[in-house]
Structure formats: structure tokens, C-alpha cells
Amino acid sequence: MIRPLLLCAASLVLAACSNDNATTATASDGLDIPDVEVAALDQQIMIDMTRTLSSDEFEGRAPGTAGEEKTVAYLIEQFQAAGLEPGNGDSWVQEVPLVEITASNHAPLTIGGGERKLSYDFASDWVGVSYRPDGSTSIADSELVFVGYGINAPERGWNDYEGLDMTGKTAVVLVNDPDYETEGLEGTFGGRAMTYYGRWSYKYEEAARQGAAAVLIVHDTFPAAYGWNVVESSWSTPQIYAQDGENPAPVTSMNGWIQKEVASEIMAAAGQDLETLMTKAKQKGFKPVPLGLTASTSYDNAKRTFSSQNVIAKLTGSSRPDEYVMHTAHWDHLGRCTPNEEGDDICNGAVDNATGTAALVALGKAHAQAGAADRTLVFLAVTAEESGLLGADYYAANPIYPLDKTVGGVNMDAFLMAGPANDVTVVGGGKSELDRFLDKALEAEGRVATAEATPEKGYYYRSDHFAFAKRGVPMFYLDGGEDLVDGGKEAGAAVAADYTDNRYHGPDDEFNEDWDWSGVMKDLALFYRLGRMMAMSTSWPNWVEGDEFKATRDESCAAADTGC
């Protein structure tokens, strides 16, 4: 996934990442942030691997296809040639067992208990999927409860479920988090910047922990960051997820969405006003509202199981080999997709994410040639990112290297061919002490940090690093800069808009022999410097006070005999 970035002319500069604060912040935080030199980075590897991975021969690199078989074999070959070691014992791969569920024969969503029964059509009015491997799903007369934003955040003094037994009930939930409409970044939930509590995935997970039978998220285009068409297309197609291992997390019978107009009608039938409830839900101390209505629907599920693979390599550390620095990128793309005007139906995924996959190998080779760092460097090419970060999430749930011994890491998700930039875009800045490492790296590179222009869209929670972050491991997510050396912000916005409008997730995201790789290599040097800094440091950077992931990291570290 690449974010449709750079389309907003205005941007904020992160005070936490400014060069002026670098020395002071490092000293006050007591972090060991060593100076490192950037080794030679092989541009030809980037070119050759991107060209090969995005060729028609690889058929769009969809998991569970012949394209995957070719991709995995090629990556193993390239990691070996780069001088790296197998990352899973003697093996280069981690098996990722997947389940695909295809729903059909959806009954309408009916709402009972009011003066008249309400009925809503699948796809146009509502969508719903199941992540249980059952032959059918049935929601029968499940009590509806409006639970505001569906958040339980003890560290922020917020619990939308307080005093409520959700067993067997259906939660009606608002998208995003309570202060997304504020202009700045101050607020209980980060102001304008979305926290994980605002993501739809969190809302489903929390409702399941509360014992809910089903969840219906109220779609609203601005706080969701996409229209109903995206919801409809994403939740009305086959759903792929990782097979349950031991001690699986609870899941609801149905996770769904409803149109905002549908939600308004349901609230009116309950004698409530949606806009009034939305306002109340933004206030601390909000209490859940039983609606006195019930929801019912049903549909069939067809299940297919198959296995995909994460590819993993490492460079063993010289003095602290049992401490790890992670590098991630997803190798998969969409496979075959809607044809373009020429009839080409292969989504080649050259930028997204053959470039990031190639970067894993190029970085691995540079580190290997520079010699082992103190800590072990891990290079993880994950599967099924396009299906919901599944490969990364499976690894993080079943880590080869313990997460309490994983210092942190960097994620690389698509390099735009825009030429060199004066800045780098920081997604999720201000969340962890990794910002101090970035301060020093940018100072050495002669660049500055620019905050993401649309923090309310929650892009930090939408790529592979997030699987580690939500389990407590601090991770970088950086994008190419907005302020290009040649043409400034206007040129940067034009490059991003051209890619988003004409190639993103389509058959025209293809390799171009005329690409300018200079900006990519500049970004790659920054990733090298950050990884090497973490690998040579003695520090264990943590999340900042109040961040939603800090308690998880603290708990993990407290239970560890060694490591963080």
C-alpha cells in the first residue's frame, strides 16, 4: 500500500524531529545514538530486482499462486547472493497458513423492535463478513447498542463499554476517534492525528473482547478517509486471514459497516438522533446507549485453506546476537485485476511494492559488506499485506525472534520515482523515542522531517510495521519527501498525484527503464543509517508517555529476563 500523499499543499513540521532539537533531545532522553557511516548501496540491485519482480512472468505476485512460488524462490536466491543467512533456523521461509472465506446469499439486514421493521440491502446499504470458519453466519434478533467510538483505553481514562455486558449483542460504532475534527495535534486521542483506537480493525477487536455477536461501523467519508465504494468493494469480496493458532483472539460472528443514512434511520426508529449521539460520543464519560432494537441477517460461507510464505534473512550480530533490529517490506501484490484499456489484467506492483522488496536485499548486501553490527539485523519480506497485513501480523503473533528482544525497526512500502527531496515524510511521528534516532540521521543527511499532511487518516496503522507496533515494538514508517530538490512541493505533489490517479493498484504500475533512481537511493541511505544506528546502539527506545502502545511494551519488557 502507498499512501496518496503529497496532495495537500500545506504540511506541518514535527518539532520532535527538527534538527534544532536533535542534540538536546538525545541528551535529555539518555539514549545511546551512535554515529554511523553509510556503506555503498547497490543501485543495480534495486533496478534489476524491481524489473524482475514486476514482470508479467510473476503474474502480479498474488499469494497462493504460481507468482508466489517464483517470488519466494527469487528472493531466497537474492538474499543468499547478498551474503545473508537463512532467518528461520536453516530455512529462509516462515509458513503462513491462510483461510479464504467467500460469503454468498446475503439476507437483508433487518431491524426489529420499532414501530415498523426496517430492511436494508447488502452492498448498497450494509456489508458484513465473518472471520469464523463456519459454513454459515446467522445474527438473529441481536440487541443493538450504540457504543460511541467503541474505545476502551484505560491509560486515557476512556471506556465506551463501561458497565455494559455485550454478550450476544450488536455494537453500533462510529469510525475514527473522538477528536479527529480538531485542527491541531493536542487532545485525548492525539487531536487531528488518528490513534489505533480510531481504526476499524481495533473496533472489531475490542467488540469481540467485550463479547459482542456483531459490529456495525457507521460509515462517514471524511473520518473514514474513503467513500462507501471502497467499503463495498473491500467487504463484499473474498476475505483472507491467517488461520488460528493456539489461544486465538476472540472474534465476533460478523464484522460490518452501514451507510450513515442507514444509521440515521435506525437511530430515529429508536427515538434517538444520530447527530446528537455523535456529539455526545466525543465527550469523556460517554455512556453506551441501548437502542431497544434488534438486528438480524444471515449468509453462507465457503472456506478455502492454503499456505503462503514470509521470506526471512538475517545478518547475525557480532556482540549482542540475541538482540534484533527488524526491516520489513511486503513482497505480494494483487495478482490479476480489472484490465486497463489495452486489456492488460496483471497488476504488476512495480512501485507497490517491488521497490520495497528490492530495498530489503540492497540494504542486506550493504550491511553484510560493512560487516556485522553489534545486534542482529533481520530482513523480513512478508506476504498478504494487500489482504490486510496478514504476513506481518502472523510473524508478529508467531515471532521467530522474541518481540521483547526486538529493539525496533523500519518498514518500506513503495518508493516513488520522484527524484531527490529536501525532506522526508514522517508517518506517525512523535509516537516513540525512535524520533531521536531520526533527528540525528536527518542531520547527517542534510534533510528535514515533514509531518504527514493528513494525520486523521491513520496511515501509521495501515502498513506492515503496525503488526509489530501494536505488540509494543517501536517501528519507523517513513515516506519520500514532499519538497523535491527539482521543483519543490508543487513538483512533489504532481508526481504523487500522477501515481495515485494513474497507476496505484492498477495494471499500469509497471517498471520503467527511464526512472530516476536518485531519490530512492537517497531514501535508502537514510534507512541504512537508521537500521545501523539501532543495531550499534545499547539503548532500547520506547513509546512516549501516553502512547497507546507503551503499556504493551512496558508489560513485555517487565516479563523479559533479558532484552528490553
What kind of sheet is the major sheet? Answer: 17 strands, mixed
User: What's the CATH topology name of the largest domain?
Assistant: Aminopeptidase
Q: What is the CATH class name of the largest domain? A: Alpha Beta
Q: Outline, from the CA principal axes?
A: globular
Per CATH, which architecture of the largest domain?
Answer: 3-Layer(aba) Sandwich
Distance between the termini: 31 Å
Instruction: Write out the CATH superfamily name of the largest domain.
Output: Zn peptidases
Number of strands: 21
Please work out how many helical segments DSSP would assign.
15
Which spans of ≥5 residues are poorly predicted at pLDDT below 50? 2-28
Compute the CA-based radius of gyration: 23 Å
When the domains are counted, the total is 2
Question: Can you give the helix content as a percent range?
Answer: 25-40%
Instruction: Please identify the structural class as seen in this structure.
Output: alpha/beta
Overall average residue pLDDT: 91
User: How much strand content do the residues show?
Assistant: 15-25%
